[in-house]
Design brief:
mainly alpha, globular
């Protein structure tokens, strides 16, 4: 069966290169394998439907809904105001404030695209009004948006946890330290270029302004506290936390800030259904193809081959990093995860690599791909907001990859950056 799977995989790659949509190519590859192996074709819809019979996967559409509610409620405006009052007075302060906003917003939506689209317009406008070059403002916004899927909650972490059978709670808490390091490393980069590009200082707004803007966004900033606090205190599971987060977001929009109306619910729900549909059809098609890969014993065969070729776990991780960074340049993050998890995760476990470390590393790799050309989706979003050409954006983002790659290298070489906090909070 492994030989058959390799032939089917070759046809699947050809279909991808010819422009067939990813979900369709995966489903057709699974169908071709089943048909060629003499299995009933009805197994395809059964496997696809069966993949949705999972309690943790329900968290995905709920976190998408929460992000859409918070974005529609215009809560980002309050967070930007607080971040600017807190740190906007240092040299390059608006850039620092943009990064801090992304770190806070990351604990609310868990998506790089949502971060860039939700707070990007206001951040870029503030930086340009302060005299920053358009491409500098856009690249800072794009780079800081990658923090979104690392600091919990995180949609990619949910997908990885479900696909690799890893605790979603541990993955969430494992992303906290790397996410903070990403923000600090980007701020260090801003400090380096602030003098070179002549980024100005601005008057300190005063402690009263910091207190006022913090109180204005206090309930919004409490969103990750509600999610993580409830999870790790044992009151609810990650899936139930997503439902509670949706209710909390509605409470903020309708009661606390009163920026939502009943008329806003229709576009929010439509957007959520559209995004969820795209995610779920990918998950279902990948689940069917993953089942075919599993029964063909391709992972069971490749894992010993990898172990025989590479005898050092660190070398394996470095090669995986290179592979994922390359794949991330050409493929959407969730799709790449669904394809590669069945192959790479078993090999990582065979090397004794902690699944939380490997999961966070895999997500970070592929999220960096969202800001690398030629198909970085965040680059396209920010390019439209900043009204600059994609070519200009692609050149401007390159230096900002350096601090992110430094953090990626750190979590690869030193596992406690991703494993210490989950162990402290949840035990072994």
């Amino acid at each position: 069966m492994m030989g058959l799977m390799l032939k089917v995989s070759g046809g699947w790659l050809l279909a991808l290169l010819s422009g067939v949509p990813l979900y369709a190519s995966m489903a057709l590859a699974a169908l071709a394998f089943m048909w060629s192996a003499g299995m009933p074709s009805m197994m395809l819809p059964q496997k696809m439907a069966g993949s949705m019979n999972s309690f943790p996967i329900i968290a995905a559409p709920l976190f998408i809904l929460m992000g859409n509610i918070l974005a529609a409620a215009k809560i980002t405006d309050r967070i930007v105001a607080f971040a600017t009052a807190l740190i906007g007075w240092v040299r390059g302060g608006y850039a620092h404030a943009s990064i801090l906003t992304s770190m806070i917003f990351a604990g609310m939506v868990g998506s790089a695209v949502a971060d860039a689209a939700g707070s990007g317009a206001m951040e870029i406008r503030a930086m340009r009004n302060a005299g920053y070059r358009a491409e500098t403002a856009a690249s800072i916004t794009a780079a800081s948006a990658t923090i979104g899927p690392i600091i919990p909650p995180s949609l990619p972490m949910v997908i990885y946890g479900v696909s690799a059978d890893v605790s979603i709670g541990r993955l969430f808490i494992g992303g906290v330290i790397p996410g903070i390091l990403m923000g600090l490393s980007l701020m260090a980069m801003v400090a380096v270029i602030a003098r070179r590009e002549g980024m100005a200082r601005h008057p300190f707004a005063g402690f009263a302004a910091i207190g006022r803007t913090f109180l204005d966004c206090f309930f919004a900033v409490m969103t990750p506290v509600v999610i993580l606090g409830g999870m790790f205190s044992g009151y609810f599971t990650p899936t139930e936390a997503a439902a509670v987060a949706c209710l909390y977001a509605l409470f903020l929009g309708f009661v606390v800030y009163r920026t939502l109306t009943l008329a806003d619910l229709k576009p929010i729900l439509i957007s959520t259904v559209e995004t969820t549909g795209v995610v779920m059809v990918l998950v279902m098609a990948a689940a069917a193809l993953g089942w075919c890969i599993s029964i063909s014993r391709l992972p069971q065969t490749l894992t010993p081959m990898i172990l025989a070729t590479i005898d050092n776990p660190l070398v394996f991780l470095l090669l995986v990093n290179l592979l994922l960074l390359f794949v991330g340049c050409f493929m959407e993050a969730l799709a790449a995860m669904l394809i590669l998890i069945p192959i790479l995760a078993p090999a990582a476990m065979a090397y004794g690599i902690d699944p939380v470390q490997f999961g966070v590393m895999m997500v970070l790799n592929l999220i960096i791909g969202t800001i690398t050309p030629p198909v970085g989706v965040v680059l396209f979003v920010v390019t439209r907001i900043a009204e600059i050409s994609f070519e200009t954006m692609a050149r401007a983002i390159l230096p900002w990859l350096i601090p992110l790659l430094v953090v990626l290298t750190a979590i690869t070489l030193w596992p406690p950056l991703t494993t210490w906090l989950p162990t402290l909070v949840m035990g072994r």
